[in-house]
Amino acid sequence: MDIKVFGVVGAGQMGNGIAQVAAASGLDVIMNDIKDVFVENGMRTIAASLDRGVAKGRMTAEEKGGILGRIKTSTDLNDMARADFVVEAATEREDLKFAIFRDLDQRCPAHTILATNTSSIPIGRIAAQTGRPAKVIGMHFMNPVPVMKLVEIIPDAALAVDQSGQIVNSNARVAQLFGYQPADLIGKPIEVLIPEQLREVHCAHRLAYNSDPAPRKMGRDRSFRALRADGEAFDAEVSLSPLVTGQGLLVIAAVRDISPLKRAQQELEDSSARLRQTVEEQTSELLTINAELRREIGKRLQIETDRRITAESYRQLVENQPDLICRFLPDTTLTFVNRAYARMFGREPEQLIGKRFMAALYDGHAYGIHSGGTKESLSQIKIDDLKRFHRQYYAAANAVVAIVGALDRTQAEQMAAANLALGRYVR
């Protein structure tokens, strides 16, 4: 079939996108909607989309003009009489789509294929609104249409069944789904497509439907099984719609194999169950680990608390000792002194911490050292006194303090020599 004129019913977001893509493919397009303002808005959207393509170098201005020139707008469905292929992209309302397809069926030539962009209404129910169910398909475009190069074609297997249950017509999809040639089914009872154990029940349902024919879907909410020519049974979704013809009332049955869907659903359920089990197991494990971690953190916090209490008790004990206690680095920098030690120098502890011992001792120049209740100049302290101080106050400090002779505060070299000399003297 040679398609030259492409019709689109609906100029909204999906409709104008479909029209743009069809025109860009070289087809003459009729874009229809119920009001001029709708088709004008649709054309503006298409023009803006093409402008972005020109700005990005995807097409030339001449190509843009050609695409726009191939799109004609319409507010009259009679214009679709020229179309070889029509896509309906109207609002997702069943009554509205049914009315559109009845109108299109009356206005379009017999060869015209009618497609719907529906994503929720069974194709068979829409096809049943026409006298050409074999030429009605689902054509689901992805949004935005000019960007998403993907379209889902949904042709259902369609059969026309008379009041006696005889198959009077079918489309090509029936051969693919059931394995029969269409001609082989004409005149056969519809029950040949039903598993043998379900035929009696199906016949009763068919007779009940004939007494109250109306569009109806079955299969997903109720179990329905169909039978292929090779004897394989499968899960099916069937939509039934009555069609009044010159031959009397016919029932259009649109059949879709939903076995893959059910398998996918079962796999999804199985995967979800496995995932839930894994999550439950890991949650239990994490709860156990969390409890152990909390216990360990509690232990460590208790240890740290005990350590701080012990350290504070020790500090208070040391600070209040009558003996002189200090701690210093290998270079004799004081890092701790208790109050008794500081009182010997006539200072507060914080005034001595951070100073080297020798510097603190030489500071006696300014304030002297308390010895026996009198304030003496450092130069007046004898070696015996220094030895006494050293033994009495610093032997426990595990460091060597150097002082000899007449101590010269300005000579660091003499201080180093004094350190060695004092070490020998004290020993």
Write a brief caption for the model.
45% of the residues lie in helices and 19% in strands. It is built from 15 helices and 17 strands. The strands form 4 sheets. It has a 7-stranded mixed sheet with strand order 3-2-1-4-5-6-7, sandwiched between helices. Strands 8, 9, 10, 11, 12 and 13 form a 6-stranded antiparallel sheet that branches.
Spatial order of the strands forming the largest sheet: 3-2-1-4-5-6-7
Global structural class: alpha/beta
Number of domains: 4
- Kindly report the CATH topology of the largest domain: Rossmann fold
The percent range for helix content is: 40-55%
* pLDDT averaged over residues: 79
**Quick one: CATH class of the largest domain?**
Alpha Beta
Shape: elongated
The radius of gyration is 49 Å
Distinct helical segment count: 15
* CATH homolog superfamily of the largest domain: NAD(P)-binding Rossmann-like Domain
Q: Please give the oligomerization state of what you see.
A: single chain
Please give the CATH architecture of the largest domain: 3-Layer(aba) Sandwich
Beta content = 15-25%
Kindly state the number of beta strands: 17
Largest sheet: 7 strands, mixed
List the uncertain runs: 364-387, 390-427
Beginning-to-end CA distance, first to last residue? 119 Å
